[in-house]
Design brief:
The protein is α/β, with parallel strands linked by helices and 399 residues long. Helix content is 36%, strand content 18%. It has 2 domains: 238 residues, Alkaline Phosphatase, subunit A; 130 residues, no CATH class. The chain is built from 15 helices and 13 strands. α5 crosses α10, α6 packs across α7 and α12 runs antiparallel to α13. The radius of gyration is 21 Å and the shape is globular.
């Protein structure tokens, strides 16, 4: 038996007036998911433990079977694992976004316009971060390049301070959301002076792109320790994601990361490459389990774009789910397939919420006959409900 999880990050949503009261998942043309739902099981899973923030970190730990209340030590430390950052037990890692702030006001009066600086390329971001490092790096504060707008700051002998995720305050004046720690606040302010008129940003403006003009710190935490996935479930697994967070979870869990050329975490990611990598891993490379993570629905939710979120879901359906199913069917290998989001990212609020998410579970050995389609409403109507979410993986592996 082979097992594949396909996770559409932030795919779940709420009814939207412009879609006739439907969610993006209901409005999207998803023949592959609907066919699987008609032959499988749907329901709701509660991925965010009560009292915890609805991040992709806590949610994906939960989906992978790691209780966030036991294993979560912060978001950035998981990302640090992915990019090979050496962390001591006394270090604190912080996510270091490169963001877009408005330009005409004093720093504290600026508005955060874009948490990803138009999903800046890793190549451009690396140059900008190098300019910051030359001015701000010290023995106590060290910067590391990640992917796109997502980077890392290691604070030696640091503290796990409360910091605001930038995607939670899009369109807001930043004054009340700045770090209380004076050094972190000063570094954010100084980063604007360094980056605002950097040649890369002048060129970006000329191309009609958002200026990547400030750092933003959040997601502080200490060195994580995860149980081996193989020891926990007796399955050899691979992670296929463009996002450092998911890669870091995989490193911590002792799974292999498969890097797919052209996979970038955006709407134009290499969907087909991810699907093929998963099929190849479980059919030809001896792995039992593949976890395909697709970031695009979440990014489109943060952008507040209904049309692009619908398109991201349709791409997931036709360019990942369909291809994975076809590849597994053609092999004659028995398999189980799980499709779900990690958390909702509703267009209306442009950030994550804690609502339960719809799951779809298909078993090639036990096809069912029903009339379900895969969406939030029908998943709720099914009456199937899994809580806590960290039990989902054990349920998935159960024969």
């Amino acid at each position: 038996m082979k097992y594949v999880v396909i996770l559409g990050d932030g795919m779940a949503d709420e009814p939207i007036e412009s879609l006739g009261g439907r969610t993006p998942l209901e409005a999207a043309d998803t023949p592959a998911m609907d066919a699987l739902a008609a032959a499988g099981e749907i329901g709701l899973v509660h991925t965010i433990p009560e009292g915890m923030k609805p991040g992709s970190d806590t949610a994906n730990l939960s989906v992978m079977g790691y209780d966030p209340k036991k294993y979560y030590t912060g978001r950035s430390p998981l990302e640090a694992l992915s990019i090979g950052v050496p962390m001591k037990d006394t270090d604190v890692a912080l996510r270091c976004n490169i963001v877009t702030l408005s330009e005409d006001e004093p720093y504290e009066k600026k508005t955060i316009l874009d948490h990803s600086a138009d999903e800046i390329s890793t190549e451009e971001a690396a140059v900008l971060l190098e300019a910051v490092k030359q001015e701000l790096e010290s023995e106590s504060y060290r910067f590391y390049v990640g992917t796109s707008y997502r980077h890392c700051l290691i604070w030696e002998q640091g503290q796990v301070v409360e910091l605001t995720p930038p995607h939670d305050v899009l369109g807001q004046v930043i004054e009340t959301h700045l770090p209380e720690d004076p050094v972190l606040r000063r570094m954010q302010e100084r980063s604007y002076d360094i980056l605002a008129n950097h040649p890369i940003n002048l060129e970006r403006k000329a191309r009609g792109l958002n200026s990547a003009n400030s750092l933003w710190f959040w997601g502080a935490g200490t060195k994580p320790i995860l149980t081996s996935f193989e020891e926990k479930y007796h399955k050899r697994g691979v992670m296929i994601s463009a996002v450092d967070l998911l890669k870091g979870i995989a490193v911590g869990a002792g799974m292999e990361n498969i890097c797919v050329e052209g996979a970038n975490g955006g709407l134009d990611t290499n969907y087909e490459g991810k699907a093929q990598a998963a099929v190849d891993a479980v059919l030809n490379r001896g792995y039992d389990f593949a976890y395909i993570h697709v970031e695009a629905p979440d990014e489109m939710g943060h952008q507040g774009s209904v049309e692009r979120k619908v398109r991201a879901i349709e791409y997931l359906d036709s360019r990942v789910i369909r291809l994975v199913k076809e590849g597994l069917d053609a092999s004659g290998q028995d398999y189980r397939l799980l499709v779900l989001p990690d958390h909702p990212t509703p267009i209306q609020v442009r950030t994550h919420t804690s609502a339960p998410v719809p799951y779809l579970l298909y078993d090639s050995q036990k096809p069912q006959k029903n009339t379900w389609k895969y969406n939030e409403k029908e998943a709720k109507d099914s009456g199937n409900d899994i809580a806590p979410g960290c039990e989902m993986m054990e349920y998935f592996f159960r024969q």
